[in-house]
Structures are given as C-alpha cells and as structure tokens.
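FIELD: query
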Amino acid sequence: MIDGHLPPIISRSCIHELRGFTSMEAALVSGLFKLAGVKLLPLISSEFASIMGVKKDLCELERLFREITSRLSAVGDKITDSDPSFYWLKDLKDVAYDFDDLLYRLEAEKYKVDMDGNKHDMASWFCAKPKSALSRLEMAQEIKKIKKRFAEIVKQRTDVNAITNSLVAEHPLRHVNKTIGEMSILVNIDETKVFGRDEVRHKIVSKLVNSNTQEKISVISIVGLGGSGKTTLAKYICQDNKIMEHFESTWWIHVSKESDVEKLIGKLFESVANEKSELHTLQHMSRIISERLSETKFLLVFDDVWNGDQHEWEQFEQHFNRGAPGSKILLTTRDGKVAEVVKSAEIFNLAFLSDGDSWKLCQQSSGWAEEGLDSEFIEVGKEIVKKCAGVPIAIKSLGGVLRNKRHIREWRALRDSDLLNDLDIKDRVLGSLRLSYFHLSDNLKQCFLLCSIFPKGYFIYKDDLISLWTAHGFVNPRIGGQLPEDV
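FIELD: result
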C-alpha cells in the first residue's frame, strides 16, 4: 500500500518508461505547460511575486504557455523520433520540467511567507530576513534564465505559427501486490460483458475438473496475443461454479516478466500464506508452501508468464508438484513456447473475437446502442472495429474514444487514422492504445502518466491514487467546496 509520504513531483525516470510512445511527447509537454499555467496564476496575482520582482516575467511566460498549449493540443498521431519536431519537443519538455521544479520551490517559499504574514507585511518580512530575501532573488534570476531558454526554443521554430505547421496531423482529433493471492479473483467478471469466450471457458473448465485424481498435477495453458483477454478469461473460469465446487482453494500469482526463482517462490508464499515474503527465509517459505499445498486440492493460476527457461521452471515446479490429488495449474502466456516448456497437458490458443462479438463489445464500451445510431454511424463503427482484428483491448480502447464522439466526421477521422492501418496486428493494437491516450483531456493524460510509477501487476488503491493526483496539482475542484474525490 502507498504510504503517507507523497513525492513533491513526478520522477522523470518514471515518465521515461513511456518513451517508446514517441507520439506522446507533444501531449506530455502540453499537459506540463497547462499544469504550470494553473500554478502560475495564483503566484502572479500574489504580493509575493511583486516583491520578488518576477511578476512581469511570470506574466509573459503564462501568455506564451497559453499560446503554445493551444497548438500542442492539436497534435495528431504521426510524430516520430525521426521527425525534427521530436527533438524540439524534447528541449521544450526539459524546460517545462525545470520550470515546474522551480514553481514548486516558489510555492513552498510563498507558503512560508504566508504563514508568517500575521506578524509582518511582506516587504518588512524580506527586510527582516536578508538571507531568505537573497535566496529568493536568486530564484528570480532562475526564472529569467528559464524564460530566456524558452524564448530561444520558440525562436528556433521561427514563430508560434510554425508549431502548428510542424505538429498538426493529417487527421487532427479533437503494492502491496494484491494481484498475488485471491484479490484478482475477488474482482468479479460480469458474465454479460464477456463476449465470445463461453465455448473455450467450458472446455477449459471441463479439463480442470474432469481428470484422474491420481495423476501428476497437470498444467492447462491459455496462449494469446497481449490484450486478447487471457487474464479476463482466467478470472471468468475461476468464477465458474464447477471450479469453486471442485477445488478447495484457488490461488492467483501474477508472474509477468519475473524470472528469478527465489522471487517467484516469494510470490507463491505470499499467495498461499497471506504473509509478506521479506520477513521469511527461503527455506521457511518452501516448507510452508509444501505444507499448505499438500493439505488441499488447489487450483494455482500463474498469470502472464513470460520466462521460457526450462531449468528455472523445473526449479520452481518442485515447490508445488507434491500437491493433493486433483490439483491443477492454469497458466496464461503470450508465448506458445512457454506453454511447451511447462509441459502443458492442454494448450488453448485464444482465438480473436468474431465480427459480431467485436461489434457487441464496442457498443458496450462506447455506450452507443445500435438502435440509437444512424446507418452511417453503424457502417463506420463496424469498419473501425474490423481494424481491431478481434482483439478485445483494442476494441475497448477505441470504443471508449467513441463514447463522446457525436459527429460522423469524428468517427471517420478515427477510422482513417494511420495508426490503424498497419498490417501487423500487434502494431494495430498498440495504435489503438495510443489513439485512446491522444483523446484524453490534458488533465487526464497527466493522471494516466502518473500511474507509470507503479510496477506491472500492482493493485492500486483508489483513494491513495487520488491523493497522489491531488498532491501533484492534477485535480482542481471547479466548483467551490467540491472535494477532489468528487472531481
């Protein structure tokens, strides 16, 4: 769980985890400037800025920020790291980060002055504390340096209009690790919202419960493309009444790219013992795992397995291969070789959704019912869905984009995006995710990017995440007295 110490700013190294999405750079810069603008306004209007002699500089920066963000918001999906604009954006982003750091320091200093405001007026306070006044004057110089850097970058583009010309696209479109254990399973899957998986679910359930109880623990593997719904299907299976009646215990281990055997043992221990692995030796954890698993007929779910090293799997397998008769392992992976390495008794290659099921999923994700759409919207909508190639995560992402699109030209622009024209299905899936990101509002982009500080598989607590967003200034109540949680 996230502790009570909130970092003052987002770590750059965390955001750079998303550097592979080069098209996100412009959106990120835009968001940073908008946040800086929000922080600037109260500083500009304060007596603090006047005394420091930086009010004029801050006002000029605020005007420039507004002009540039209005143009960056129109960025499309075609900027790449080979585009000259990309390098300009990187420079602009560095300035935005430095200025955000400085704004944080200014806000902290202003807070100190305001706290002492009952005793002195501000001018007297500065005179009374010359060292503090000197440090603030140094910060004033930093503001001027940043302003100069900022102006030089803008000058490189000739004028502000050049920003629009270079960036606008062809189709502008306006842990405590709780997934370990049974937490993921407790998040119930609504059966009415799972399309095209009933047949494969019944087959897998049958393989898991109808078996010779004297045989060695067998592995059933689900193989499929990232985003094809393997984890959703596994949860769906665990909720089946036959599974719940047949197995005495079901434990869920989110594996991901973890390959260290000791860490995997720690994850398995945390799942079956419900204790933190850091507090115990490897020998103790191995003994507890062996005791717990030999006492019950279990289903172990290893979700999102990447490592295909047979030696490491055999080392890990020793800790659960002495389970009670009838116990089974359900494994999900993107790589068919992994399913072979673990010697799967049965491998289910997850098929893509049919056109009909894909369209149903899109309607569910977008909130648009076919009965409420004109024929042209239905035609374009189905063309968009077809480009998703039956991959659920792509369909859900673009369905979410369509939720607030009420004009046919917006649907056509989404359909015609170059990101959905790649022949490789994996690239098209990635393109759909990038498009869903581009269509977020700037404040939501910032909220989303902050989530990159959490490791994959981390169970994020809603209230803690809201606290982080609020601490970073991403959530600003629009109505007097409105709580951040309500926003």
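FIELD: remark
The chain has three domains: 12-173, 183-349, 355-438.
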